[in-house]
Structures are given as C-alpha cells and as structure tokens.
Amino acid sequence: MRGTVWAAANQLGVVAGTPAELQSALLSGAPRTLRLGQPGQDPAAVGELARILREFGHVRVVVEEAADSGPPPREPVDLADPAAVCAAEPLGITAAYERHGGACGGLRAAWLRAGQALIRDQEPAERALALLAALPASAGPHLRAALTELAAGARWSVVWTRGPDDTEPPWAGPVAALTVSAGRLMIAGRDGAVRHLDAEPHTAPLPGRVRAMAATGDGTLLLLDERGRLHTRGPGSRLTAAVTATLAAHPGTALAAAGDTVLVGDRVGSVHAFGPAGLHQAAPHSGRVTALAATGTLVCSGGADGAVCLWTPGSAPQPDPLTERACPVVALHAAPTARGPAVAVAWEDGLVELHHPGPGEARAFRPGPAIRAVAVLQEGQLALATDEMLVALRPA
Q1: How many helices (H) and strands (E) does the chain have?
Q2: Which of 43, 65, 227, 280 lies 20 to 30 A from 356 at CA?
Q3: How far are the Cα atoms of 7, 161, 182, 210, 307 from residue 231, in angstroms, in the given order?
Q4: Is 20 helix (H, G, I), strand (E, B) or coil?
Q5: Measuring CA to CA, which residue among 368, 211, 358, 225 is closest to residue 292?
Q6: Residue 269, pLDDT above cutoff 80
Q7: How many CB atoms lie within 10 A of CB 372?
C-alpha cells in the first residue's frame, strides 16, 4: 500500500505516506483526477486505495489495467546491498521492505523514510543521495561509505544529517523554522525553543506553534506563531514593538528580516516592509503569502499561487517571478554570495531548489518527506528540515 500511496501522491503533487495522509493533503485543494494501476503497483493495494479515495469524494479515481511490463524480474534483490537496491525497480523494493522485518543495516529505515522521492524515475546516484540523506545514525559506517560512493555522480553531496535516533547531541524534535544569524544556523522547534546546531535550546517556548523565524541586524530573534502573532527574543527595538502591535490586530502569514527591516506577508497576497524609512507595501501574489526571505535590499516572497517574486521596498516588484510551479511555496531563504543573492525555495510537493545568481539551472533535491524549512549556508550549502531529519547538502 505504501508504494501505491507514494505514487498517487507524486501524481497529485502532495506528500503522503498513508491513505489518511493523502486525504488530508487533498482537503484544501480543488477536486482532481487520479489514475491508478501503473506497472509495478500491487493490484490489491490499488483496489483498496481506490475504494478509500472514492468514499472521500474529493478525487475522481480511474483504475487502469496495467500494461505488460516485460519479462518477470530476476532473482530477489539483496535488500542489504545498497548498489542493488538503488538500481532495482523501486515499487518492488518498497513492497519487499514492507514485508521484511530486518533493519538491513539501516537501509530499510532510510528507504521507508525517503521512499516518495525514491520511487520517481531517476539515476541510481540520485537514489543513493536521497538514501544517504535519510540514513539513520545507527547505520554502519560501511553502508554510509557505500552510499557516498554510489552518490558520487549526483548533483549534491551530503555534508551532515541529524535525526530522531541521534544521541550525541540528542535530537531536539521536529524543526519548524530555520534562519541564519551572524553566520550561524538557527533552528526553531515547533514550540519556539531556538538553538544552534548541536547545542541546547536557549529561548523559552511560545504559547503557540512556530510558523516562521527571522533575525534582525542587532541579533533580535523574531518568531511568528501559528496565529500570525509576532514574538521577540533578544534586544528588540521600537520597530519590532510596533510590528508586534500591528500583527496583534492584523495577523501575518509569513516573516523575514534584513538588517533593520522587518517583512510580513498576509493572506491576501501583500508584503509589508517595516523599516526606519516607514512602511512599504507590494501585492505580488494571488492568494496567501506563504513564505518570505530577504538579504540586503532584496525581498523574496512565495505564495499559495506557487510563484516566487522579487521586490526591493520602495520600488515596484519585478514583473517576472524568479520561479513558479503549480503548487504552493512552503519555505524560502536567501543569502548573499560573491555573485549575488542565492535563494532556496521549497514547495508543498516535497521539492527544494537552490537558485544561484546568473544563468543556469537551479539545483533541485527531493528528500521524500514534506519540507518544513530551508536555509542557505556558507559556501552555497543548503540546509533543509523535515519532521524526521535535518540535512545539509553541498553542490557537487
């Protein structure tokens, strides 16, 4: 069933691992058509998922007769062999791991964590990279080394990972937001406790869950809660006090800061820049602003419309989006480089892209689970957080 749900979620542009998660992910969107029965999908699982989603009533399900997928597979794949697993048919590997109770050196846990990304068509090197990023801390060094070698042809390399089974230091729980302050990665848990990587939390929890985090030039940490209210940790200023009062009456949906400017998004597609020179506003999106980032004078905004727009307060937004896809943006971060700002973008379907200044394609990565936060680190590294892992990648 898990592989069938992953394939359906990929087709619908959402992240889900169970029928219930798939239903939940589809609740807020328009009705869609789903086609099941592709080669490699288990007929019983297809029939069961079709029955569940038809009862849900939000998806038109079409079950197709799978085409002949060719001759039967060879000898069973060794589920503890990373090279064999990365090269094999992924839905078959998923079903085998669901039946298999052993750890396979940590390979089974990594596959079931990253599987929605792994079942997509891709080269074995890219599959090895996703497995390496999802590998539990308990995995043997030989497996990590083997996956690193297999991933040598991928567009990224893994710098470090953190997950629930890390004990030194212990995993601090799911990450809600990331930012960079004074060159250091700042990590906010869902409860608002903020810490550096490998350090204990050093701020008090919030009364509500965290939606976004930003840092001002004087080191003040700003936290936006799920109700759209602003909380400050650190020195603060008249400006941050004024923004806090404003959001108490008019809740925000996204947050960023650059220097002494605080930026807030709202549910109708507008971005508000509060700074020493006053208030500047723009309306670059159709629908809710879902994410903000800023570096220098450049503001990046992401929306439920799937667009990432660029703006300098005091001027009109740039006419063309930096990038645009047919699903909502869920996280943004921007940082300066020697060639100009680099921008990390994550979408609701589990894709993250790092856009470098100048011509050329953005570098993309799919960890498998839903992405909660992103950050651009030094030397063009990319940090991303899901509910079960925090990963740093370096462009290969």
Answers
A1: 9, 24
A2: 280
A3: 40, 29, 20, 10, 28
A4: helix
A5: 211
A6: yes
A7: 20
